[in-house]
């Protein structure tokens, strides 16, 4: 993030199709990035928890609750980013307008401190995927009855999720090279890392919230 940001500010990369915000990857993937991540991780989590605790809906719900927390974090942070941009912004072209929505509706530009939602989202998605798919390697060692039956679905979900992770990492590089300022991107990245560490390496790992287990405690 830091290297790409400095390249963007001090050694601009020539424009290309990928630097256009309307490129297919940005429009159909990044713009709804959490939807893609949530959908595939839902499949991985449900299949994995079913293998380890077949028929135990309470246990499955406990594992799935991690995705609920991640979704809530995504929603709250992005909402805060939008508010910060609104609070710190002015309407370029008609400064009397104090609403970003009205400013855009009248054809003007709103300029405020725009924390990089893309940086936050892509890192948040990548770190969440990295944590959640670790359970799959335990499934391959388990030799359980349900794993043998569900293996094709599990492998398919894993491959699709891994491919999505690669895409998010590639889009993060492009975001750093072409969009936002250094401070906006670094702040977005730090918030994503803070969220990941605070949940997976503190709340879950230290059992601060007993109801929500760590991903690597699949039998709970």
UniProtKB/TrEMBL annotation:
A family per Pfam: FIT
One GO term describing the cellular component: endoplasmic reticulum membrane
Main location: endoplasmic reticulum
Transmembrane parts of this sequence: 28-51, 63-80, 108-129, 150-180, 186-203
Gene Ontology MF annotations: coenzyme A diphosphatase activity
Membrane topology summary: Multi-pass membrane protein
Location in the cell: Endoplasmic reticulum membrane
Keyword Transferase among record annotations: no
Claim: Transcription regulation is one of the keywords in the record: no
Example of a GO biological process term: lipid storage
Keywords linked to the UniProt accession: Endoplasmic reticulum, Hydrolase, Lipid metabolism, Membrane, Transmembrane, Transmembrane helix
Cross-referenced InterPro entries: FIT (IPR019388), FITM1/2 (IPR046401)
Entry protein name: Fat storage-inducing transmembrane protein 2
Phylogenetic classification of the source organism: Eukaryota, Metazoa, Cnidaria, Anthozoa, Hexacorallia
């Amino acid at each position: 993030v830091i290297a790409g940001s400095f390249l963007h500010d001090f050694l601009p990369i020539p424009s290309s199709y990928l630097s256009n915000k309307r490129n297919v990857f940005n429009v159909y993937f990044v713009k709804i990035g959490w939807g893609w991540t949530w959908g595939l991780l839902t499949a991985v989590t449900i299949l994995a928890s079913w293998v380890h605790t077949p028929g135990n809906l309470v246990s499955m719900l406990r594992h799935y609750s991690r995705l609920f927390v991640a979704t809530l974090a995504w929603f709250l942070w992005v909402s805060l980013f939008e508010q910060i941009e609104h609070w710190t912004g002015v309407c370029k072209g008609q400064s009397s307008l104090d609403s970003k929505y009205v400013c855009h509706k009248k054809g003007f530009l709103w300029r405020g401190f725009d924390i990089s939602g893309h940086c936050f989202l892509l890192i948040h998605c990548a770190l969440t995927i990295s944590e959640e798919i670790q359970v799959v390697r335990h499934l391959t060692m388990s030799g359980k009855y349900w794993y043998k039956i569900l293996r094709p679905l599990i492998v398919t979900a894993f491959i699709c999720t891994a491919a999505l992770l690669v895409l998010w990492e590639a889009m993060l590089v492009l975001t750093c090279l072409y969009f936002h300022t250094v401070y906006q991107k670094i702040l977005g990245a730090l918030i994503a890392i803070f969220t990941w560490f605070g949940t997976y390496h503190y709340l879950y790992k230290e059992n601060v919230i007993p109801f929500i287990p760590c991903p690597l405690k699949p039998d709970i």
